[in-house]
Amino acid sequence: MASPESDAPAEGPTSPTGVESSIEFEGGLGPLAVFLVVPTVLFVAVQAVIYP
Amino acid sequence: MVGGFVLTGAIAWAILRWEGLRAADVGLSRRTAVSGALLAVGFYVLLNVVGAAYLFLSGEPVRLAPPEGPSFALWGVVTVAYLIAGLAEELAYRAYLQNKLVALFKGGDDRVRKAVAILAAGVLFTLAHVPNRVLEMGLDSPGAIAGTFVSVVVLGLLLGVLYEFTRNVAFVGVLHGTLNWSAFVVEGIPASDVALFVGLPALVLVAWYYRRWATEEGAPEFAPQRQRHVAPSL
User: Fold this and answer.
1) Which residues pair with A20 in a beta bridge?
2) Are B56 and B62 contacting, i.e. CB atoms less than 8 angstroms apart?
3) What's the rounded Cα separation, in Å, for the pair B65 and B230?
4) Domain count of chain B?
5) pLDDT by residue (tens digit) across A1-22?
6) In this structure, is residue B65 part of a structural domain?
7) How far apart are CA B92 and CA B152, in angstroms?
8) Is residue B12 part of a domain?
9) I want to staple B33 with a disulfide (CB 3.0 to 4.6 A). Which of A13, B91, B167, B170 is the partner?
10) Which of B104, B215, B226 has its CB closest to that of A22?
């Protein structure tokens, strides 16, 4: 456990709270591609059933 | 209908976890749910109070409009369905997609890049909605399809800017989910005038005040969006 005196490296800029922070996305383009493709495939499949 | 939106929300949540984020990191937590719902309700109350005051000063009677729909129970079910739809879509398209694009475009600290990312997210939001509208509404003329495209882009941009300014999924989710309602419960209010001249300025004011309050409270969801560098695999 880090002590208060330890000089752990900070990540990102300072947020309004004064805490070093950021909303960091770790996944690259893979999650974005899945997000865009999966609902599209589901939509097309559902429409194919509704409007054969 | 609700099942599809629940699935949308579930996919967005799972992808956020894949990205190493929690829903609370992007503005969906118990705290933001309470403050966001209060903010949206306050906005609708303000619209109705201003509309009622206008009617009163004009010498018109002020009375509640009769509830729409066949029954109160059905109205309640539809309300819950719209709220679920709004929250799920805002978690997907604003909290995930828009934040991800801002991070990829390196817009966390750059307003121009952020604006481009919000625009791109709005266009993708529109592309996901227009085909469904075309099929459900039976649109077949290019003009009608273009009109739908533009109206959804404007809606997406409005919600995108409001989200970026408040980082509150519940606030934009409740607004999104209640767009199919009439915002007015007082009969006879000139809806379009009040919405334009009171609603839009009130939204700006509410969003500005909320951001100021939330940042003073130290809300962590206002941190800039970043994309961790991913080394290309060989």
Assistant:
1) A14
2) yes
3) 56
4) 1
5) 334 444 444 444 455 544 458 9
6) yes
7) 16
8) yes
9) B170
10) B226
- Is residue B84 assigned to a domain? yes
**Chain A interface includes B230 (CB < 8 A):** yes
CB contact under 8 A, A28 and B109: no
ipTM for this model: 0.83
Terminal alpha carbon distance of chain B = 43
Q: CB distance A31–B18 less than 8 Å?
A: yes
Q: Which residues contact B66 (CB under 8 A, 6 or more apart)?
A: none
Say if the Cβ atoms of B92 and A28 lie within 8 Å. Answer: no
Name every residue whose Cβ is closer than 8 Å to that of residue A27 and which is 6 or more positions away in sequence: B15, B18, B19, B20, B230
B234 belongs to a structural domain: no
User: At how many degrees (to 10) do helices B72-90 and B2-18 cross?
Assistant: 30
Residues 6+ apart with CB under 8 A from B221: A23, B24, B25, B26, B27, B32, B167, B168
Please give the model's pTM, rounded to 2 decimal places: 0.85
Q: Which of residues 25-44 of A touch B (CB under 8 A)?
A: 25-28, 30-32, 34-36, 38-40, 42-43
What six digits make up the tokens of B140? 């077949």
Question: Position B228: which residue type?
Answer: R
Range of B71's domain?
2-220
Contact B184, B191 (CB under 8 A): yes
